[in-house]
Amino acid sequence: MIGGLLFSFWRFLEIITLIPTLGMLAYFVHQFESQNFLTPDSVLVLFIVSVLAAAWAIATVLRRKSTRDSALFVSFIDLCFIGAFIAGVYELRYIANADCTNFSADGRFSLTIDNNGVTGDSPFQFNTDKNCAMLKASFAFGIMNCIFFAITSFLLLFMHRKRDDKEVVVKETYRRRSHDSR
């Protein structure tokens, strides 16, 4: 029972980290498609893996009983997703050392809520490159999902081993009927 709860907890964490990854990478796919460019492999690989992994994670959470019954198969597919996420993160590795923010000591600030706004001078200015930050966040979520899928894969292996310890007793009964030929 505790194994099923731990499995569900980690699956929900996977789903929670896959949804923002899907959204951010879908933004890039849409931007490239709307400009009639090919989407770079680095974005496309992680996007496709995230879509498939999200569908797999949702399906296994919704079908927990059959997931428990076929724990070895689900564990194998999770291991395959670990490899796919490693490939996606490897393709996006160039973003790891990128500097997505610019911080300076002189600038202006503005805050707008509905029709009310406040502007003024500030001793600090903080600028973030949106595209760089979204790619870096997708990269980090990809690494996190590698770890999460490894945890669920090992949990499923332990759940399968526990199920194999049960003894199965088969009771057979025979009935003999005698037929009179006359």
Write the layout of secondary structure elements.
Layout: H1 2-34, H2 41-62, H3 64-69, H4 71-91, E1 101-104, E2 107-113, E3 116-122, E4 125-128, H5 130-164
Antiparallel strand pairs: 1-4, 2-3
Helix pairs in contact: 1-2, 1-5, 2-4, 4-5
3D structure, described in words:
With 182 residues, the protein is of the alpha+beta class. 64% of the residues lie in helices and 12% in strands. It contains 5 helices and 4 strands, in the order ααααββββα. The strands form 2 sheets. It has a two-stranded antiparallel ribbon with strand order 1-4. A two-stranded antiparallel sheet has the order 2-3. β2 (107-113) and β3 form a beta hairpin. α1 (2-34) runs antiparallel to α2 (41-62) and α1 (2-34) runs antiparallel to α5 (130-164). The protein is elongated and about 110 Å long. The N and C termini lie far apart (61 Å). The mean pLDDT is 84.
List keywords for this structure.
182 residues; alpha+beta; two-stranded antiparallel ribbon; two-stranded antiparallel sheet; 5 helices; elongated
Strand order of the largest sheet: 1-4
Helix content: 55-70%
Mean pLDDT: 84
User: What sequence of helices (H) and strands (E) makes up the elements?
Assistant: HHHHEEEEH
Number of strands: 4
Count of DSSP helices? 5
Residues in β-strands, percent: 5-15%
Query: Unreliable segments (pLDDT under 50, ≥5 consecutive)?
Result: none
Short characterization:
The chain contains 5 helices and 4 strands; from the N terminus they run ααααββββα.
